[in-house]
Amino acid sequence: MPWIEHDHTSSDALIAHLVDTLIDTCNQATREHRSAWLALAGGRTPLPIYAALAKALPSASLTVIPTDERCVPDTHPASNAAALHAAFTGHAGIVVNSLTREDGDVQASLDQTRAMLAVNPQPFDAVLLGMGTDGHFASLFPGADNLAEGLALDSNIDAIATLPDPLPPEAPFARISLTLPRLLRARAIHLVVTGEAKRRVLRQAQHQDAVGACSVGERSFGEYPIAALLHARDHRIQIHWSP
User: Fold this and answer.
1) What would the DSSP string read from start to end of 165-222?
2) Using only C-alpha atoms, what is the Rg of the chain?
3) Are 124 and 39 in contact (CB under 8 A)?
4) Are 137 and 225 in contact (CB under 8 A)?
5) Residue 70 is inside which H or E element, if any?
6) Distance between CA 54 and CA 23 in Å, rounded?
7) Max CA distance (Å), the chain
8) Measured in whole angstroms, how far is the alpha carbon of residue 181 from the centre of its chain?
9) Cα angle at 40 between 130 and 170, to 5 degrees?
10) Closest by alpha carbon to 174, among 109, 85, 98?
11) At 188, which CATH number?
12) pTM for the whole structure
């Protein structure tokens, strides 16, 4: 089975488990190559994880990027990088790199992200992802015209600019997203899923025919893009669920 599931009794238990796991990851990375390199999901759910991580690693050397970003100015409330900066505020050893330019320009932001990843080709020490009720992860949405480009495992593209269709009403913006092959270039991948509704989506994606449904040539990924992550060969996804 290409995943390992961790069921937690509460969101607090999930947070505590992931904090401990990421502390171990960062400490090992620091011992091995002096600094840790993480790609972290935005959104409200994981922010307590990051704040606790910052407190637990007072002397860590850590570089963080969002797994995806809304193309908005850095000061916009919808900015994932702004939320990460707030979570890690006051920690001099943690650097948060944005995927967007200050003004949120889409093409300039994509160029910046691809240039940054080109000079940082090393695997992430850990990736932390969330999942939407439509089965999207990062900003790889089922209705996007270029979803195939973002999920193609034989691609050497690290990031795409994409426009969800339909646009989420709470965040109606173009996005920059890391691609599936770039996210899979990681020593550990953690997927956070909360609530029964998302668990039902997860179960459907787990049982999806990944070989047929995720054919790039047919531009078909089944109902849920998350299935492409779950069924990626030679990877073991750590799934963390809580009510």
Assistant:
1) SSPPTTS---EEEE-HHHHHSBS-EEEEEESHHHHHHHHHHHTS-HHHHTBTTTTB--
2) 17
3) yes
4) yes
5) strand 68-70
6) 9
7) 49
8) 12
9) 55
10) 109
11) 3.40.50.1360
12) 0.93
Residue 69's closest CA among 37, 112, 120?
112
Across 12-61, the runs of DSSP E, i.e. the strands, are: 36-40
- Take residue 50 and report the two structure tokens written for it: 């990051």
pLDDT score, position 208: 81
Q: Which pLDDT belongs to residue 223?
A: 81
- The tokens of 122 are what? 């090393």
Question: In whole angstroms, what is the distance from residue 14 CA to residue 7 CA?
Answer: 8
97/43 Cα distance (integer angstroms): 17
Q: Which residue has the tokens 């913006």?
A: 173
Instruction: Give per-residue pLDDT as tens, 39-50.
Output: 999 888 888 999
d(CA 33, CA 125): 10
Residue 136 token pair:
């999207």
Q: Which of 56, 57, 52, 84 is nearest to 69 (CA)?
A: 84
Q: Is the peptide bond before 46 cis (omega within 30 degrees of 0)?
A: no
* Residue 217, domain extent: 3-242
Q: In the numeric block, which tokens belong to residue 183? A: 């996210």
Give CA separation, 184 vs 196, 220, 235, in Å: 26, 20, 8
Domain tally, the chain: 1
Query: In this predicted model, what pLDDT tens digit does every residue of 81-136 receive, in sequence order?
Result: 999 999 888 777 899 999 999 999 999 999 999 999 999 999 999 999 999 999 99
CA distance 233 to 41: 22
| Coil, helix or strand at residue 26 | helix
